TrEMBL record:
Keywords: Metal-binding, Oxidoreductase, Zinc. Belongs to the zinc-containing alcohol dehydrogenase family. InterPro entries: ADH-like_C (IPR013149), ADH-like_N (IPR013154), ADH_Zn_CS (IPR002328), ER (IPR020843), GroES-like_sf (IPR011032), NAD(P)-bd_dom_sf (IPR036291). The keyword NADP does not apply. It comes from the Bacteria. Its cofactor is Zn(2+). Pfam families: ADH_N, ADH_zinc_N. This is Zinc-binding dehydrogenase. Gene3D superfamilies: Medium-chain alcohol dehydrogenases, catalytic domain, NAD(P)-binding Rossmann-like Domain. SMART domains: PKS_ER. Residues 8-363 form the Enoyl reductase (ER) domain.
Length: 366
């Protein structure tokens, strides 16, 4: 099969021929139809998140199951599926407690070493050299992944529309539903209107937020956010964003502010934009060593809540999201602004690096 292989920091990915992956117990192989271009992949390409090379990135996958390993139930060859970037083992203490978004094996084996849970990769060059996997390694014609990360796409839903459910949408849902528990009538700010930010805006509308304020430095991204459900937009390069948010909310600030980029300036905007007792939810993945400041007295006196959110709970939440899509309550395709053929996969990440991507870009695997 062909795969886009990351070989060195800040070097273009190369399309190479790799051996077809084979599933082991509890795993399936998916013929990839499309894969979202996520900013977390870009962190790896830039060396901001340490990861072994050579590696295949890509973790927002939509495709068709082509092979099923032993001990897999409920899935079959030919099923149209979407994957979650979190691949819960279902057995560690966090999974047992219901916290599968912070599955210990996922972080120890996959995020740390690029392997699945037998401590081995499923990807190899023709000569046998191992190639590591970021999640399932979806920037390829085929990928192997745990069955716990694979979900049937309902009839009538186009595969080309739902790849982003696996990361950006699921990340946004986890932040809204589990970290913040947004209720009807709450006011929210979404700071950074990229892929995850766009999904936060869409889902905040689904959750019934009464005011959704999108903040960014790019007017095109703000226009896109308004089209996805933002009631107000603030360009933080032109005005003091926290002050503008307080003006829009009658001087009080928002109930919840989501930081969706992983950077100090966006964190500071979110921190300074919430009402007393409000929640600041950090969703964006920052480069290692990034630190944000806050005044301890202010946190105590204003009863602020600062939370982290890594994603949703795949086995509980992905079926909910897919049902929303099937019923027309959520349209992830509306956030897709660019589609790239596989031969131009590097172009997708170059555009992301330059900040040109509005919403989500998707790579179609031919």
């Amino acid at each position: 099969m062909r795969a886009a292989v990351h070989t060195a920091v800040n070097q273009p990915m190369r399309i190479e021929d790799l051996a077809d992956p084979r599933p082991k117990a509890g795993e399936v192989v998916v013929d990839v139809r499309s894969c979202g271009a996520c900013h977390t992949d870009l962190h790896v390409l830039k060396g901001e998140l340490p990861f072994p090379v050579p590696a295949v990135l890509g973790h927002e996958v939509a495709g068709v199951i082509s092979e099923v390993g032993p001990d897999v139930t409920g899935l079959a060859v030919g099923d149209r599926v979407v994957t979650s970037f979190i691949m819960p083992c279902g057995q560690c203490e966090q999974c047992v407690r219901g916290n599968e978004e912070i599955c210990r094996k996922f972080f120890a084996y996959n995020r740390a070493k690029g392997r699945l849970y037998d401590d081995e990769t499923r990807l190899f060059r023709p000569g046998g050299e191992p190639v590591w996997m970021y999640s399932m390694g979806g920037l390829a014609q085929r990928c192997a992944t745990t069955a716990t990360s694979v979900y049937r796409v309902p009839d009538g839903v186009e595969l080309a529309d739902v790849a982003s459910l696996g990361c950006s949408t699921m990340t946004a849902y986890g932040a809204l539903r589990h970290a913040a528990d947004v209720h009807v009538g709450d006011t929210v700010a979404v700071v950074a209107a990229g892929g995850v930010g766009s999904a936060l805006v869409q889902l905040a509308a689904v959750f019934g937020a009464s005011m959704i304020i999108a903040v960014d430095i790019d007017d095109e991204k703000l226009a896109g956010a308004r089209g996805l459900g933002a009631t107000h937009v603030v360009n933080s390069s032109e005005v003091d964003a926290p002050e503008a948010i307080r003006d829009l909310t009658g001087g009080r600030g928002v109930d919840v502010a989501f930081e969706a980029l992983g950077a100090v300036p966006t964190f500071e905007i979110a921190r300074d934009s919430v009402v007393e007792g409000g929640q600041v939810v950090v969703v964006g993945i920052a480069p290692r060593g990034t630190t944000g400041e806050f005044d301890l007295a202010t946190i105590a006196r204003r009863k602020l809540q600062i939370k982290g959110s890594y994603g949703a709970k795949p086995r509980r939440d992905m079926p909910v999201l897919l049902d929303l899509v099937a019923r027309g309550g959520l349209r992830p395709q509306d956030a897709i602004s660019r589609r790239y053929p596989f031969a131009e996969v590097q172009d997708a990440y170059d555009a992301l690096r330059r900040g040109e991507t509005v919403g989500r870009a998707v790579v179609d695997i031919d």
